[in-house]
Amino acid sequence: MMLARRMETASARVHDPRQAIFKDGLGTRHRRDANDGPCEVLVLRDAFAPIPSFEFLVRERVNRLAHVRSEHFARVYDVEHVGEGAKIALVSRSVPGVRLSRMLAGAEQNLLPLDVESAFCLIHQILTGMAELHEDAPDACDGTLAAERIIVGSTGAVTIVEHVLGAAMAQLRYPPERYWKELRVTLPIAVNAPMLDRRADMAAIGMIALALLLGRPIADDEYPGEVASLANGSFGLGGGFDPFPDWLREWLSQALSLEPTRWFASAVEARHAFEIGLKAGDQDASRATLEAFLREYSKFDPIEAARPEPVKAKSEPVRIKPEPPTPIAIVIPPVPVPAPPPMPEPEPHIELMPMGASLKVDEPKPKPVVAAPPKPRVTPPPRLISDEEAEMPQTAVPQRNARAQSSVWPRLIAAAVVLVALTSGGVMAARYFSSSGNASPDPVVSGTVVVNTDPAGANVVIDGQAHGQTPTTASLPVGPHTIELSKDGVHRTMTVNVTASTQISQFVEMPKTAVATTGDLQVRTDPSGAKVSVDGQLRGVSPLTIPSLAPGSHMVVLENDLGSVNEDVTIQPGTTASLVVPMKTPQGAPVSGWITITAPAELQIYENQKLLGSSRTDRIMVAAGRHEVELSNDALGYHSAQTIQVSPGQVAKLRPDWPQGTIAINATPWANVTLDGQDLGETPVGNTSVAIGTHEVIFRHPQLGEQRVTATVTAAAPARLSVDMRKK
Fold it and tell me: Fewer CB near the terminus (10 Å): N or C of the chain?
């Protein structure tokens, strides 16, 4: 069916802008009719064409998700070229209905309230569709989900379209605000260096859900700054402006990643939490209410209904008149035949067919004879013929009666055999002398294949032979080759067709290594035996290690017979935090306390020009009372004076304000720059404000690869960093 569709659409590659049905930041959609139903063609923007591996990533995602057969997704048929350039188009099944973005804008413009039950019904359908995608393709995601790419049918059914562009759009490397304003792509909010992954899918679902609950589209300037306040607000006109229930606020917060420590890992988890919230809040996602809303909406904006299936015409069986054995096309000199005597009826037709194609010939008659109309017959379909057959002249053969035909037939066969033998010998001789006299130089028989993966470091095997790890370049003979990639137990296989003197680039997304999502806390007290509670939950007595704490801030309470101490501890994923607390001592003991310092870089602590210690020390013992200390780091040009009060037997914490410095970055010839995971765009990058200290800078060039450099920014002067990508 795919081949038939390509043949059918080959003549329709030029898309008339006047036939456009919808346009957004991705491109323009056109309607196209095909034998098995209407198609929708998304002609992607010209700006996407020059992006390396863009077309490959689109085709790779189409192939990877081809097995997804869900009613909630519009099937993608093909990726085709538009015109003669690199511009491409996505051919998908056309879905009748109204786009969700248009429906929300129309409801707001016409003051049509979208009731809460209808909003819940739409949200649940979107969650169900995305959950099916996340279950069927564990290492894939949508990446570009938005209200502009969701169709709501006249019966309330939800269909997600154009769900294969996420990997390609990730190559744009836009900042979150630009992704939102140009493409309506949502990225998680409280995340450093967000990516178009499943977490982005959840952020998109959260943004769509928020728009449905408000009953209006989310404006350009509301993301990301005002999203948190909207998610903690109230329903729109359809909900009587009542505040969101607590379960819904919590669900929106996790979907949008408003907190760095609480988020949904997939749509499966989000759907489960949504269904629990609906049940706990005694609320309903009513399909009947949604259909009633759509009937009201269609009064001012008619919704396209589903087209009936095309009825194929029943063809009557046709009886084919048997044909004589197919002879070989030959050149036969005309055989003189005496003029036939007059007959009351026309003579029968005799046909000689060269190489399977019908050739009708008539003998000139001495005078015109009016013949009865011939009986209808079925002509066999045309057959492709060779160049030699096309050059053979076709000589008319006189019409004979049945007896004459039987007498001429043996002579025709004999002549055909002789001519075929002579012709074959002549052709072979001509080819021999032509090839021996005009020997051409050996053609180029190799090409180049460049293989990249994200992340890099995947093992590459081509046609059973190892070729190192990605990124890698290989020179291969012309023809098809099988490339196998493997990393962390995940395998990918693809086939490439190498042509002479050309370079093929392949870019494949590999699953990222799992990142730790929890941290541990080690607690010690002096003396030991104190009760330890974390966030109000008793965990044991000191000393102890508390595993699997969520990243973020936690309140730790330590209690013994002498009193209690409250400590605020921050947990980082994949690390173990240490808490050492002295408890109160009996009267008569020496009165002292401790100082502990938290800073991004090592600091020395001085009092009255006397070194007390450094921030690398867990705690520094000092006399209880008021202390004026100086914090310094000569390498970073940092100096600060602070006053701190130390209570007897307690630990006083110092958290100095950390200053900012500037850094300017450049590369030869050029490169995309990432600073501590934040995309800064292409070089040159002007003075950028960052905290003083060490920073990781990554330079990426599509042809020259990647370089990582550690830069130190000080408070004394701006830092300048430049690399030559041509040098490794």
Answer: C
| 562, amino acid identity | L
Tokens of 233: 């607000």
Please state whether beta strands 576-582 and 519-526 pair in parallel, antiparallel, or not at all (unpaired).
Answer: parallel
Secondary element (H or E) of residue 109: helix 100-109
Rounded CA separation 600/80 (Å):
52
Residues β-bridged to residue 234: 243
Contact (Cβ atoms closer than 8 angstroms) between residue 99 and residue 239: no
pLDDT exceeds 80 at position 479? yes
Residue ranges of alpha helices (H) inside 385-460 are 387-391, 402-437
Rounded CA gap, 146 and 162, in Å? 10
Q: Where are the domains of the chain?
A: 2-297, 447-508, 519-599+609-621+636-651, 660-724
Cβ partners under 8 Å of residue 102, min gap 6:
301
Instruction: Report how far residue 702's alpha carbon sits from residue 454's, in angstroms, rounded to the nearest whole number.
Output: 13
The CATH number given to 519-599+609-621+636-651 is 2.60.40
Residue type, position 199, single letter: R
Question: What is the DSSP code (8-state) at residue 222?
Answer: G
Tokens of 429: 């001789």
721 contacts 686 by C-beta, under 8 angstroms: no
Q: How far apart are CA 580 and CA 543, in angstroms?
A: 9
Q: How does DSSP classify residue 36?
A: T
Contact 549, 520 (CB under 8 A): yes
The top-level CATH class assigned to 2-297 is mainly alpha
Cα–Cα dist 23/572, whole Å: 44
Q: Which CATH class is domain 660-724?
A: mainly beta
Task: In whole angstroms, give the CA distance from residue 715 to residue 720.
Answer: 13
In whole angstroms, give the CA distance from residue 2 to residue 10.
12
- Show Cβ contacts of residue 189 under 8 Å, excluding neighbours closer than 6 positions: 176, 203, 224, 227, 228, 256, 257, 258
Q: Which of 334, 352, 349, 337 is nearest to 401 (CA)?
A: 349
Q: Which tops the pLDDT comparison, 547 or 589?
A: 547
Give the tens place of pLDDT for each residue, 602-620: 889 998 888 888 888 888 8
In this predicted structure, what is the pLDDT of residue 201? 94
Helix axes 116-136, 267-280, angle to 10 degrees: 150
Same fold, 519-599+609-621+636-651 and 660-724: yes
Separation of alpha carbons 196 and 594, rounded Å: 46
Q: Which residue's structure tokens are 């035909």?
A: 405
What are the pLDDT digits (tens) for 453-470? 888 888 999 988 888 888
3-state secondary structure of 717: coil
Nearest alpha-carbon partner for 200 in 187, 184, 209, 218 = 187
Predicted local confidence at residue 416, as pLDDT: 58
Q: Compute the C-alpha angle 101/106/111, nearest 5°.
A: 130
Give the three-class secondary structure for 450. strand
Q: Which residue, among 442, 455, 451, has the nearest Cα to 476 in the 3D structure?
A: 451
Q: Superfamily for 447-508?
A: Carboxypeptidase-like, regulatory domain (2.60.40.1120)
pLDDT for the residue numbered 137: 78
Judge if the upstream peptide bond of residue 455 is cis by omega within 30 degrees of 0. Answer: yes
User: Of the candidates 362, 436, 437, 447, which has an alpha carbon nearest to the alpha carbon of residue 399?
Assistant: 362
Global pTM value: 0.47
Length of the chain: 728
Q: Please state, in angstroms and rounded to a whole number, the distance separating the CA atoms of residues 609 and 628.
A: 11
Average pLDDT, the chain: 79
